[in-house]
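Work package 3, deliverable 3.1, input record:
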Amino acid sequence: MIQNYNSKKLYERLPIYVHFLNSIQESNISSTTISKSLNLGEVQVRKDLALVSGKGRPKIGYSTKNLFKAIKKYMGMNHASKAIIVGFGKLGKALYDYAGFSELGIDIVQAFDISNTTDFVKDIKELDSYCLENEILFGILTVPSTEAQATAEKLIRCGIVGIWNFTSVRLNVPSHVVIQNENLAASLSVLVKSTLDKKVGNDYEKSNETNDSYTSKKH
Amino acid sequence: MIQNYNSKKLYERLPIYVHFLNSIQESNISSTTISKSLNLGEVQVRKDLALVSGKGRPKIGYSTKNLFKAIKKYMGMNHASKAIIVGFGKLGKALYDYAGFSELGIDIVQAFDISNTTDFVKDIKELDSYCLENEILFGILTVPSTEAQATAEKLIRCGIVGIWNFTSVRLNVPSHVVIQNENLAASLSVLVKSTLDKKVGNDYEKSNETNDSYTSKKH
DNA sequence: GGTATATCGATAGAGTTATATCGATATACT
DNA sequence: AGTATATCGATATAACTCTATCGATATACC
């Protein structure tokens, strides 16, 4: 493959553009404006947009509406993707109620747990029939770590091919299944370490701008 | 800088090693074993360990205890880092109760909200005095998007230099502050798109292994 | 003690992602 | 109509990250 621009990082930015485009009133928008609003590199935004969208016009930019549609189409956000949550603890509840998914074409249609079943939380025994009947492809895994691998396998047997894994377990799955790890503890550690790095740097030399970290951009 | 291995990806993996080392009984452990247990590349693990730790021994591996200590030291996990949560909605609650942080030397010492104050949730008006008295460096931002920027600025005025940002807003902060964005909606989108990519690939050509995605490893 | 080997550490290279630069062009403005 | 310029698209380069390979070595085993 000569050049593969279907990068993970790109896939992270496109939803950010969608959210932004959804929030503005202007009928046209330039990559410059987008980059400034979102603290992203100007060239990067242009490259992203060039990949997924039609032409932009000098002095004008892109049609907001067309751009919006183009990104959603590219990301497969046109037809809604149905996901279920397995493990209805605090984190599962929070994600179930999280408002930001529908804008990106994702519906969390059902929650499962081993107990605490209510009108909208099914017992995990019903997982199998529910997933097959409703053709669920995506599962959000928020069970205790001890149950992670077994539950993942259960999901896969039910036809799920994409798992958003909030447990600290590194799942072992067949190659047709995609795992997206969301290791919150590790993520917070990254912040702490990055911050300490920068802080120490600043303490040594009072100078700024040295070894400017990845997480905060300087444009 | 000739070669900077203080990479963000490295910082994500080190806590995973810590968690793993914490869970095993063996007094020695090899990079091979670690890599297999965690579904990571063998060479990658060795390189990571070589960077932070003392020598390993052929046929034996590393001393679990020493390795554990070395990583924690490298990551600054020896002295506990104190963090606060601002915004005590469902997500804030979930993070407040999340068990995985302490193992990595991070204590969430206090939660704040604009209302719903209880014995362990302080009113956001007390943010200032609390942070300065307790020398808080890290803030977890789980407020509504409309409040994100203003709240971030408030945190920064209180001396906070690292912000874990769960809002969909791309914060604008001075250069001495580190932002770690945790855009859940974007993250789930990545999973959906990656999965669809692979699925389509498999539907075209019945072959496997083509364009094997980044999220599931093949070792 | 000698031999086989698991594991290490280092180097080189491949793949991925971001940035810098610059000419082209459609638009706005005089 | 002519000129200035914001914005685009493309190419080249730099930075970052991961993987393959291989010789060195300490250990286990005969």
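DSSP finds eight helices and eight strands in chain B.
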